[in-house]
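Readers of this paper often ask what the protein records in our data store actually look like. Below, we set out a record of this kind in full and without editing:
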Amino acid sequence: MDSNLDACGVPAYEKDDLDRKIIEHFPGKIVRKDLTSLMKRGAGIPTYVLEYLLGMYCATDDEAAIADGMARIRKILAENYVRPEESEKIKSRIRELGQYTVIDKVGARLDEYRDLYVAQFTNLNIEPFVMPDEYVRQHTKILTGGIWCIMRIQYLRPEDIAEDPLADIFGDDPAEQRGRARKGRTSGKGKRGPEDSPFKIASLTPIQMPSLDLSELVSHREDFTTDEWIALLLRSAGYEPSALTPRERLHFLTRMVPLVELNYNLCELGPRGTGKSHIYTEVSPYSYLLSGGQTTTAKLFANNAARAGQRIGLVGHWDCIAFDEVAGMNFRDQNAIQIMKGYMANGTFGRGTESFNAEASMVFEGNINDSVSNMLKTTHLFDPFPPEFNNDSAFFDRIHCYLPGWEVPKMRSDLICERYSLITDCLGEFLHAMRRRDFTHHIDRYFRLNSDFNRRDEIGVRKTFSGLAKLIFPDGKMSREDVRMLLEYAIEGRRRVKEQLKTMAGIEFIDVKLGYTDMENPVEMHLVSVLEQTDDSLIPDTTPQAGHVFGVGRSVADEMAVYKLENKAVNGNAAFRMEGAGSNREVRDALNAAFEQFKNCAPRLAAGMHVTSKDYLLFCNDLQAKGPSAEISLAEFIGLCSAASGRPVIAGLVIPGILRLSGSLEPVGNLADVLRVAKNAGAKRILLPMSSIADLQNVAPELIGAVSPEFYETGDAVAAARRALGL
């Protein structure tokens, strides 16, 4: 495809086979995405707003008509779309012409003291003015975040108010009437209010398709192969399907499931730059993005102070609420998380004495700043959530699917679609209309879920399956293999949730082997795994080299981590050199303290050890890139003993503990965290003082069962070394 512009400013274009099909079956509902990219440059408006205009003037393959349409849209964007820096210019134009049509986002709130709706634009800098009641009643989302509209705004001067020939019947002098208009209707304190503004909305039209014949659109599914239909959906959302693998295409489609499925809870965590929020800001006018993830209980769920009928918050007005950055999620009301858990479970919640029902889906997006393999060895994949969520397994159990954002490619130029597709708003209306349909039963035509499924697992898998089926097979015509493909993907998304819950809460979520049987062969079980859950271990269950030990402790960045300490003894005169420990003084002092205690105590370990006749080299391997730690001095003491004696520590052992320069040993704190990190790193044994026995009573049995304690006499570093070396 040649991207050069012709004389009319329209990019030259050569249709492919899918283009021709789209043009044939969806006349009047199509757009060339390269035109969207071209027109969007410098215009900070959502894609669905721009394509609404392209759909009005450029929904054709006639080059001359497209050129005329683009010229008109350029004029509209130049003269009618409100840019913040041109706000005063637009206000002046409204005043000089008496009325003018603008494109902007408008929101409103109820002023209960004046009993009127107060409106404000996003870009047009007009003081608050009155929003007519009828528009609020017709378009309730004006009250919950605002909507993009085409509006005719009037400017009424006092002298423009026509004289009322019958005013004197009510005792009003027409001259006095105009005088009051000049002064404005002020409050008792002399302050002007929204009702005094000369700006009035004469007409308002939301930027969205007036109607969509869903049956007609779905009827065309049979004219496309499955791959072609998936490509059509992805193109319409702005993605180029030919640049994606089949699995990546499913990931991008899964982002649309919250828009097509009622009360669906999706989590996507991954690297930056993968376009997580694109669908929820650019594609659908029915989704609401909470930037930064911050909101209030009243705004999100219900405001008890509002009048009856207007109390329900965002969840009652939008199809989908997306939290843009989960790490920043914050609620002032401590009950908010409990309300959210109830809502995510069944779509209901209570505020005050009232109970509410809503259908909005919840999407939780965020960034992962470490490799997935490292995260799985030290924590779980929900770790980016803030602390008030992080250990709440009941909250995460309500998530229906965990989309592996680390498998989604970062947005590149070749991933941006520049071919024919449906108008974005047509896709948005299709998603909205399909929410009322239920495709969960299609699973039961061919397959049965296995016994590891609990009720929430089944709900999650069925909802993910139903959403993808409504997207890819909206006519319900699916073969056995079509159903199998979507079912396995849905099970994987739910199992990823269960695997993290198992790490967090242990035996309560031990049943993670989710799978299914085929009704044609019910004896054979098909288990579905998650790709990132491998058997690789940082701490292998094999005997290490002498001098090599694994320590566990909190890093200087306050993260629990595992370290490999590689010690080597060579001929010398008791010098100690270290690499990989960084320049942090506390860390280096801790390792030097271990060496000083080694020189003092090693003769007690085994007779005949000539400590002073060797030099000792340490390489500190920060296996998980968490930064150095000052809490691995006991592990280094034992590593030095191992190197000097030529005897390895026992297989699969991890060593926590702080050995001070004085020779004292600190108690092992945060034992549950230590054991969890050790387990995730693959350790089979952990070296603990006898004093930790009492603390183990508060640790999940699964952790103790996975990592067996090896006890030594409390406070005795030499006893710890003997135990580790099997002496």
